[in-house]
Amino acid sequence: MSELINKFNDFKASMEKGQLIGIDIGLSAIKIAILEDSKKGQFKLLKYRSIPLSEASIIEDEIQKPEEIIEAISETMKLFKEKKKIVCLGLDGPNTVTKRIQVPDGVDEEVEDNILWESEQYIPFGADDAEIGFSIIGRIEEDDIVDSIVGAAKSSVIQKYIGYIAEAGLYVKTVDLNCFALVNVFENYLGDRFYEVSDSGAIIIDFGAQYTSIIVYKNAGPVLTKEVNIGGVLVTEEIQRSMGVSYEEAEDLKVFGDDNGNLPEELMSIIEIHNDKLMDELRKILNFYIAAGSSEQASYCFVTGGSSKLPGVLEGVSKLVDLDVEEIDPLETIEVKGKFSEEEIESIRTCGIVALGLGMRKI
Ligand SMILES: Nc1ncnc2c1ncn2[C@@H]1O[C@H](COP(=O)(O)OP(=O)(O)OP(=O)(O)O)[C@@H](O)[C@H]1O
Ligand SMILES: [Mg+2]
User: Fold this and answer.
1) Which atom number of ligand 1 is nearest to the Cα of residue 178?
2) What is the pTM of this model?
């Protein structure tokens, strides 16, 4: 009987339509966001929760403790008293790739075939094991060209994640890339400034726990997306090692400081070394986009992510790109309708952008 009920629930979920539940499985936490879209394209945040993950729950993109993740999601759904079951799941890391592709204009099927054919060569894990999606950014009329952005993720990884989400009682309708979700919120956040920023080019950096993700945005879409394997967790691990404390204690020390709220000298030097290493990597990737006089030079720089709060990061980036650095506040254009504590609001502002972008999707 329960088997039958499960099947029925699955069927119901597979037919369900509407706004999707955004789920971002980050290294430090799972973030879940439920939004509502008014007719005027104004999004409202109804529900949000960030559930911290324990040490080493994800290693090199492999989920090591699936039970912890499944439990966190199903518990959140109970807490939310949420009936909706359909999900937009975000992925990132080496199992994903994006590429801006331009093909000759033509009839729709031809354009689609061309984009897919062209994109295959850019998939490092092979097109045979990839789910590929694209969206048309626009048409360059004078050259008869269609400008598009392609995203791909490894099928076997997608299947694994879909399985975990199913075990939590939910149904993945759409898989998106975290960088696209971020861009969704970013475009929304720009509002009236969109054309100016889009024409001049912007560097966007998401300072996470596992990754630092870089997006160069120009002419209404990303022209470069890249992840560096350096993030805030490295600082946490170094604090653990050098100060002989647990992962949780090290996180606490890093984020809140000692009993007086100060960061000990030892910690400051760990952070400094980390920042220098990270800035060196960012310089290599962004070289082309920050070189004065380069035709690709970007004029704006935006940041987000929990590790952007590490002392010295904003200053380091500003010096590197030689631009003012602006922190994206996704809640400037997404109205908060649900009830949240001040602390939660702050966490949504800095760490929630990807989950919000995933939750902006509907089918
Ligand atoms: N105030 C703060 N000062 C320093 N670091 C912070 C602060 N707040 C959060 N962090 C760090 O930010 C990281 C979490 O940020 P975020 O939620 O953006 O990452 P994530 O999405 O879990 O990681 P990833 O995207 O790499 O998988 C953690 O490493 C955390 O220690
Ligand atoms: Mg993240």
Assistant:
1) 25
2) 0.95
The topology under which CATH files domain 2-236+264-359 is: Nucleotidyltransferase; domain 5 (3.30.420)
pLDDT score for 38: 80
The secondary structure of the chain in percent helix, strand, coil, rounded to multiples of 5, reads: 45, 30, 25
Identify the pLDDT of residue 13: 74
Taking the alpha carbons at both ends of the chain, their separation in whole angstroms is: 31
Helical residues (DSSP H) of the chain, grouped into ranges:
2-15, 66-80, 108-120, 155-167, 178-190, 194-200, 232-243, 247-256, 265-290, 313-321, 342-351, 353-359
| Pocket, ligand 1, Cβ cutoff 6 A | 26-29, 208-211, 231-233, 236, 251, 254-255, 305-307, 309-310, 351
How many angstroms separate the alpha carbon of residue 334 from the centre of ligand 2?
A: 19
pLDDT in tens, 14-59: 788 899 999 999 999 999 999 999 877 799 999 999 999 998 888 8
What does R_g of the chain's alpha carbons equal in angstroms? Answer: 21
Give the pLDDT of residue 5.
62
DSSP summary character for residue 323: S
